[in-house]
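Appendix B. Chain record.
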Amino acid sequence: MTRLLLLLFLIFSFADSAFSQKKVIAQARTYIKSGKDLDKAEKLMADLLKKDSANRMNDKIWLTYFDAVKKQYEQGNEKLYLKQKYDTTALFTITKKMFVVLQGLDTLDAMPDKKGEVHLKYRERHAEYLSSHRPNIYNGGTFHVRKGDYRKAFSFFEMYLDADQQPIFEGYHFLANDTLMPTAAYWATYCGYRMKNDSLTLKYAGLAEKDTARLDNIYQYEAETYKAINDTSAYVNTLRKGFYRSPKSLFFFPRLIDYYNEESMTDSVAATVRYALSIDSTNQLFRFAESTRLLNTGKYDECIRICQELIAENDSLADAHYNIGVAYFNQAIQLDKVSQRTRQKRRQIQELYEKARPYIEQYRTLAPNEKEKWVPVLYTIYLNLNMGKEFDEIDRIRMKIKRK
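Structure tokens predicted for this chain:
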């Protein structure tokens, strides 16, 4: 008797639930037919899907849900066409909802029946409808980029790109047939970069590289991201690709040279600078890099010659002054290490310090914040030249640096 009562209770509960569900769907359709309270119709269907997972197996709920959203899209699009006041952001958001709803229905549509067979009732026409509106997903992304809302923009580009993997678009082959895919990938990468989100920056970077018009930017975003996640190998490889594609870029060459110098990869420095100069022998950045290479390899006279030429062209190049000063300074240090200290050698040492001094002092003037570079050099120069007043001043600065 107890089992019978339980069974009857379940039957009546199911019947009551089904009746209630039909009532809600009917109410939503009334809203849709009237063209009013469409947001309420949408919410009713969304709530049904959330309320019970079994409802997700009811295609009538999905279709009613879509009709509510579609009607909102049509009304908004009509207002824009008639140049009436309407929120463009809302139209793009509604377009996105249409994709979400129909892709959800497609999951149900693709489920096998009791015999294990799949009979697609909706896919073809829904895929065709969404495909015709897919450009608005891309436009929604660019719209939000212009607004500076990179998170929303990324979500639009992500949907645009991931359509290639959605079963509903089987046979469309967007990756092969849609020429906007690399550009959408670029914008998605850009949005990830602007959000400082490493994983999102790299998610579509490979595809973005096919947008050759923006490839320099892509390499820059990738390089900075790889550096941020400490992937040194990928960082350097990206710098190399960027440099050999655009040798004159102010981004790739300096960073690549800095890395090689930090790792004492003198052969790589020489090869890179040599290639750069073969592209443009008058480029000041390339010539300065060559002067630094010569400085680091002890070829001081050649270093001085190049830097003097650079200063003659532009006397505000702080690092050119520094390289000359350090070239003279290093020669003085080397000569000072010789065990046999004759009067002539002491005079040569003094002369070298004298030559170094004005260049390092000028570097100090041009780069006052680079104390770590000019303080120790000037300290030694003033000490050896017996410049008491200047030495005391630089020693005070040195002590302040030590206390930090």
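Further analysis of this model is presented in Appendix C.
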